[in-house]
Give the backbone structure.
Amino acid sequence: MAELNRYIIAVGITVRSIRMKYRIMTESLPNIPWQDKKDHSRGPLWRYDDNPIIKADHLSDSNSIFNSAVVPFQKGFAGVFRCDNTSRHMRIHTGFSIDGINWDITPAPIKLLQEDNMLNSSDYQYDPRVVWIEDRWWITWCNGYHGPTIGVAWTKDFVNFYQYENSFLPFNRNGVLFPRKINGYYAMLSRPSDTGHTAFGDIFYSESPDMVYWGRHRHVMSPSSFKESGWQSTKIGAGPVPIETSEGWLLFYHGVLTSCNGFVYSFGAALLDIDEPWRIIARSCPYLLAPQNLYEVVGDVPNVVFPCASLADKDTGRIAIYYGCADTVTSLTFGYIDNIIDFLLENSL
């Protein structure tokens, strides 16, 4: 009977793969966290019923845990989490989970190992992303080095983290690496900014031969006009690591609306050319997710959904997206690759 069940599961996955219009060009991830869509959900994404999965007081001294990165690791998952403590220090911590939903977050911040002591000067660390490239995990985050810039480090075990030079001069945020080299170079998206709550922001693409020296900067996209798409009319920034698909790089990104009550953060998606990712194939006009539930509209910074990580399974087309809510807690939303790309192509700017 066990063999029969395994055969049925394998056949089911194969059938699903054949029926998919679009392919995810990654490894299989059968243990992806998942919850089926409910009838009342609208659009291609739906929220996990038990959101938020990580509460603000998850650690004994945490004020908030949000805008964090998750990746497959060993038999479960690992992550780098933004944890603001009750002294309001912004630091990054490791975390581990069997199912991607219930997390054990390390109480002490990550200790970054550096060859140059000048890199020890860091006023804050926040909004990390994590990606596997070739033989190690690379972590990027917003690093406070005389203003916000892109910090870079690598690890092979989520115990020892070795810091590289900051990628760019201040001021810059939302540094997001691609999961493989493009045309022989490491590749990163970022958003040049200023010292404060930036009221502007375009996404740029940059390349590096060694993860230290960055150049060949290319403009990717700007905020839209309010008339075109109001939710992304103030500024935009790259979200999770881009997902390689048969149609191009699938990029989830956040956009900001300036309302009469301040900024409102939502997120949408874009398809970027595989070989020249600064070229846009499609870009969503409507948002995919906006702050609507109580945990998204009430918190330290109201009206924010901010994606920083995604997991994808090529066999089923499932995608799980981790996102920060109101700069306070962490939640999950789900979707299928077919529905997301169809929505994107049918509703492109």
About this structure: The chain is about 10% helix and 45% strand.
